[in-house]
Amino acid sequence: MLKYALIPFLPLTAFVFNGFFGRWLKDKAHWPPVLAVVCSFALAVSVLFDVIGGNTYNGVLFSWITSGTFDVHVGFKVDQLTSVMLIVVTTVSSLVHIYSIGYMHGDKGYARFFAYLALFTFSMLMLVMADNFLQLYVFWEAVGLCSYFLIGFWYEKKSAADAAKKAFVVNRVGDFGFGLGVMLIFITFGSLNYDVVFGAIGAGAHAGETLSIMGGTYGLFTVIAILLFTGAVGKSAQLPLHVWLPDAMEGPTPVSALIHAATMVTAGIFMVARCHPIFNQSQTALDVVTWTGGITALFAATIALTQYDIKRVVAYSTISQLGYMFVGCGVGAYTAGIFHLMTHAFFKGLLFLGCGSVIHAMSGEQDMRNMGGLKDKIKLTYWTFLIASISICGIPPFAGFFSKDEILWKAFSSHGAGHTVYYLLAIAAFLTAFYSFRLIYMTFYGECRASHDVAHHVHESPKVMTVPLMILAVLAFAAGFVGIPDILGGPNNFHHFMSNVFGGGHEALEGGAVEGAVEGASEGMMMAISVLIGLAGIGLAWFMYRLRPELPAKAAKLSFAVHDLLYRKYYIDEIYDTLIINPLKWSSTHFLYKFVDVGIVDGFVNAVASLVDAMSRVLRRLQSGYYHHYAFGMAFGVVVIVGIFMFTR
Fold it and tell me: Which pLDDT tens digit goes with each residue over 275-312?
C-alpha cells in the first residue's frame, strides 16, 4: 500500500511545501516538485514491473463518506490500464518539470508555477488510480481547477485570464453531464465502486432496462454512457466543446505540453476505456463516440492548415489526434485507443516543448510568418521536432505509425459507423502530414523573416531544456515497438498486456470488426495506404513551401472564402457569442440586473425603506419636546382608556 500511496502523495507534499516555503526558496523552488515527481516516476516503473509480473492491486486507503447505503472510500485500482497511465503521466510530468527550470527561469511566479505543476500531477495520478466513480469525478474536477490556475498563470495579461475562464466554464458544461452520469450509476447499482458496478454488468444486471425522458424511451446504459461521454467531450476538447483548448495556449508552453497534450486532455480517453463494460452495452453510445471522434479529427485538422501561431497549430493537432483515440474506443478497439494515447503523449509533448524551445530562441515570437531559417541555428531543437513530426505523420518505424495505423485499420474493418468514419480519418491523416511539415518548413527552412534584433539573438536552449527534448525524441521513435502488429512479425506485447483489462467483450468487438472487413482489403494493404497518405501530405507540403513557396499565398487568395473560414475556425466562437454569450449578457444586464435586481429586489427593499421613512416622518411629529404636548397626550390617553373601559362593560 505504501508504494502506491507515495506515487500521488509525493507531488502533493511538494505542492504544500512550495506553497508555504516557495517564496524563500526563490530560484531553487523547483527542487521539491522535481524530486517528488521523479521519485513518483521511479515508483511507477516499479509498479509497471509488478503488474507485468501479474501483481495487480486493489485496496482501500481510508473511508471517505458513509451515509446510509452511500458508502465511498478513497482507494487505488492498479491494473494494466492504470500502470500504463502512471508511466505516461509521471514520464511526461517529470520531463516537463525539468524543462520548466530553464523555460520559467526568472519568472516572478517561479515557485507558484512549480507548486501548480505538482498539484496537477497529484490530481492526475489520483484520477487514474481511482477505484470508484466519485474519486474519479473529484479529481476530474481537480485537474480542471489546476488547468485554470496554469492557463491563467500570467493573470496580469487579459488574454490569459480570459482563456482560463473560458476553459473553466466550457468544461463545466461537460462535467454537468458527467456528474449526472455518476449519479445515475449510483441510483442504478447502489454503489460507485468500479468492481461492484462492472461485476453487476458482467452478470447481466439491468440488461435491456430503459428510461423515460421527456416522453421518449431510451436504453439505461445508453443514457449512462452518453452522460459520461459528455464529460469526456469537454475534458478532451471534442466538438462542440473544443473551443477552450486553442485559447489555452495563453499559458506557459510547459503547461501546454503537460496538460493540453499529454495528460489532462487524455483523461476522457482513459475514462471511456475504464468504463468499457458500460459502453459495450450500447451500440448507440459507441456510435456516438465514433462519430464525435471522427468528425472532430477532420474538423480540427482543417483548421490547423491555416493557423500561423506555432502553438495553435499543435493545439488543433492535439484535438484531431484525440478524435482518433475516441474512434478507436468507439469501434471497440480500446487497446488501440490507449496505445495511441501513450505514443501521442510522447510525440505531442515533444512538439509542444519543441515549440517552447523555438519561442525561447525567437525571444517570445510565436508567429511562423516571422520565423524561418532556424534549422542550422537551433539544430537540436530542429532534429527533435522533426522526429516528432514524422511520428505524428505515421511514417514507419516511428511510434505514431504503429498506434495510428492500428486505429485506421480497426475503423476500416469495422461494421457501420466505424467503416464510414475511416474515410474521415484518412483525410485527416493526409492533412496532419501536410500541416505538420508546413510548420517544419515555415519555421526551420528558407530565409529568416524575423527582425534583425530577434535574428541576432537566436540561440539553442540550455541543456535543462534540450535533454527532455532528446528523451522524448527517443520515446517518440521507439515507444511503438511495444505494439508491433502480428503482420509485421510481432509479438504485439502491448495488446497481450492490455487484454487482461478489456477481456472478452473487447476481443469480441474487435474480432467481429475484423470479420466485417471489406473483401479483398488486407491489413498489410491498408497499412501501406496509410503510409502513402502520410507521405503524400509531406510531399505536398514540400512542393508548396519549399519548391514553390509562392503557391500558399496564391492558393489563399484564390480560395479566400475557404481560407478565411478555416482561419477563423468556422466562426464557432462567433456563433457561440451570437447564440449563447451575447444573449446571456443581454439577459443578465437588462433582465436579471435592471428588471429583477434593480426593479424587483431593490425596488421592494427601497419601497419598504420609503414606507418606514414616511411613517417615521409622521410619528416623529409626536416628539415635539414641549411638556404641555406630552401632558395633553397623557390626558388624552387616560380619556381613551376610561372610555374603552366604560363602553366594554
Answer: 999 999 999 999 999 999 999 999 999 999 999 999 99
**Is residue 484 a contact partner of residue 478, using CB atoms and an 8 Å limit?**
no
Enumerate residues 6+ apart whose C-beta is below 8 A from 254. 96, 99, 100, 103, 104, 117, 353, 356
Grid cell locating 601: 429586489
Spell 338-355 as b/e; 16+ CB within 10 A means b.
bbbbbbbbbbbbbbbbbb
Residue 316 has a CB neighbour count (10 Å cut-off) of: 24
Alpha carbon distances (Å) from 577 to 243, 571, 574, 585: 12, 10, 5, 10
Q: In the 3-class helix/strand/coil scheme, how is 187-202 assigned residue by residue?
A: HHHCCCEHHHHHHHHH
The answer to whether 433 and 534 are in contact (CB under 8 A) is yes
**What is the DSSP secondary structure assignment for residue 393, as one 8-state letter?**
T
Beta carbons within 10 angstroms of residue 271's beta carbon? 23
- One-letter amino acid at 369 equals R
Is the peptide bond preceding residue 396 cis, with omega within 30 degrees of 0?
Answer: no
Q: What is the mean pLDDT of residues 608-620?
A: 87
Place of cell 476505456: 273
Q: Is 256 left (phi over 0), alpha (psi -120 to 50) or beta?
A: alpha
Is residue 132 classed as helix, strand or coil in its secondary structure? strand
Q: Name the nearest CA neighbour of 420 among 287, 521, 308.
A: 287
Beta-carbon contacts of residue 315 (< 8 Å; ≥ 6 apart): 245, 246, 248, 249, 256, 260
Q: Is the pLDDT of residue 393 over 70?
A: yes
Integer Cα distance of 466 and 383 in angstroms = 11
What residues contact residue 269 under an 8 Å CB cut-off, 6+ apart? 232, 236, 322, 325, 326, 329, 337, 338, 341
Residue 467 above 80 pLDDT? yes
Separation between Cα atoms, residue 575 and residue 558, nearest integer Å: 26
pLDDT in tens, 315-373: 999 999 999 999 999 999 999 999 999 999 999 999 999 999 999 999 889 999 999 99
pTM: 0.90
Alpha helices in 236-306 (DSSP H): 244-247, 253-257, 267-274, 276-279, 283-304
**Strands 216-219 and 210-213, bridge-based pairing:** antiparallel
Contact of 350 with 471, CB cutoff 8 Å? no
What the block records as the C-alpha cell of 111 is: 515557485
CA dist 85 and 267 (Å) reads 10
For residue 491, cis peptide bond before it (omega within 30 degrees of 0): yes
* Domain boundaries, given as residue ranges, for the chain: 588-647
Distance (Å, whole) CA 268 – CA 345: 14
Question: What sign does the CA torsion over 209, 212, 213, 216 have?
Answer: positive
Count the Cβ atoms, other than its own, within 10 Å of residue 407.
31
The amino acid that residue 284 corresponds to is T
Sign of CA dihedral 101, 103, 105, 110: negative
Spatial distance between the Cα atoms of 219 and 213, rounded to a whole number of angstroms: 10
Q: What is the structure's pLDDT at 506?
A: 40
- Please tell me the chain's helix, strand, coil percentages from 3-state DSSP, rounded to the nearest 5: 75, 5, 20
